[in-house]
Amino acid sequence: MTPQTPAELVDIGANLTHESFRADFDAVLARARAAGVARIIVTGASAAGSRAAHALARQHPGFLHATAGVHPHHAHEYDAATDALLRELAATPVVKAVGETGLDYYRDYSPRTAQLAAFERQLAIAVDCGKPLFLHQRDAHADFIACLDRVRGRLGRIVVHCFTGTRAELVDYLDRDCHIGITGWICDERRGLHLRELVGLIPPDRLMIETDAPYLLPRDLVPKPSHRRNEPMYLPHVCAAVAAARGEEVALTAATTTATARAFFALD
Known about the structure:
This protein is α/β, with parallel strands linked by helices. It is built from nine helices and eight strands.
């Protein structure tokens, strides 16, 4: 935890519909508030998950918001009913973005043809509803950029969430006016060191922070929790790591990432 981080942080990506939160959901929210997390965007990553994220956001107005989308891992499930559901959810005020959608050729849990088809259909939803896009990309950069480029002129705001890529990939995203979401991956001494070099390249009005809870628990937490579940309460730790990598005060990183997130997701 980082006590000096001021309040009003925004966690732009937390998978609060995950089963690991069922037993102590209210306590998770209370700990997040106590840590200074003022808003949480609950990620929708499947038809059922998007429906659940929408329900949580309605139950906690002003604190929880939602996205509606199908992650590439679930792309093989995408059908006409899914498309209709996402369009219905995207039209509601609590849903602030379309996604999580994109491409993942690292796991390939869905065939790549299915991933591409589901991604293109969700890009069309974003074009039609005018809401921002919440995107995922892993080991699929060329196809991902090609899909974006075909419709970029008709899209609004875009965030590439949980960015873990290369300098060249980052430049490609910034050249296309994308926002970037940084997670506790930056705290990982095994695989996140390069992010500490790259995060300074992100303009403050394009940078946002997230936990991706329950995944990506920061490895350098002291003391380490007895479990491996990440929570929004650890967002100040991510904020402090990003500030250190950028060579700026934690308060500045907190203020700018919060302002950027509020503008991106149209949070009032």
